[in-house]
Amino acid sequence: DSGVTQTPKHLITATGQRVTLRCSPRSGDLSVYWYQQSLDQGLQFLIQYYNGEERAKGNILERFSAQQFPDLHSELNLSSLELGDSALYFCASSVGDGLYEQYFGPGTRLTVT
Amino acid sequence: AQSVAQPEDQVNVAEGNPLTVKCTYSVSGNPYLFWYVQYPNRGLQFLLKYITGDNLVKGSYGFEAEFNKSQTSFHLKKPSALVSDSALYFCAVRVLREYGNKLVFGAGTILRVKS
After folding, report:
1. Residue B76 burial (CB < 10 Å; 0-12/13-18/19+)?
2. How many CB atoms lie within 10 A of CB B100?
3. Which of A52, B1, B4, B98 has the largest count of CB atoms under 10 Å?
């Protein structure tokens, strides 16, 4: 158990809908990362927050947004969902913003029908 | 742009034999390299990292990795494989010259250890 928690574990929704994925980092970690894992794209970095502020951005679609709250938990919002958004979404956290290893949560499996 | 390549989709090894999972990298500058393992229906687990220093890095669960600058490689190794090592292994490189701690992952290598 990495200490990173993600909810929900599974999510099934229809195209065009909006969902919110939640992540609580390990105690004491200030950085939160979001990744998308799919068979065709592999593991893709989406976005990083550090102590409440956006720190780095990857291949995140405009339909997706994220934020980190004062208590350091983070949410990833996915809107206007398409079939291709079906994937495993991972949250990870690390102590800081430097060369720290990232600890991953168990993931949220999103299925868009 | 930074990237890593894992040339083998799958590696098969007998229990008790040494294992190697290959990774090559492409960076402009000093590489910061990581290995992660993913068990079925689980998140990724950190195994080890190379930042600087000794070319042989020791990590969790008896794994080690050898950094080779001339060959731009960072292969994961274990002297004696266990059936429980069967999993999906990812090599990753930190993106340099950008803010944040962004990692780029390889496609992954499935390791199958047979008894």
Report:
1. buried
2. 21
3. B4
Cβ(B75)–Cβ(B22) below 8 Å: yes
- In this predicted model, what pLDDT tens digit does every residue of B42-88 receive, in sequence order? 889 999 999 988 999 999 999 999 999 999 999 999 999 999 999 99
Is the CB of A42 inside 8 Å of chain B's CB atoms?
yes
Tens digits of residue pLDDT in B86-97: 999 999 998 876
Give per-residue burial for B79-89: e unless 16+ CB within 10 Å, then b. eebeeebbbbb
Burial of B43 per CB tally in 10 Å (0-12, 13-18, 19+): buried
CA dist., res. A106 & res. A108, Å (int): 7
B101/A104 touch (CB, cutoff 8 Å), yes or no: no
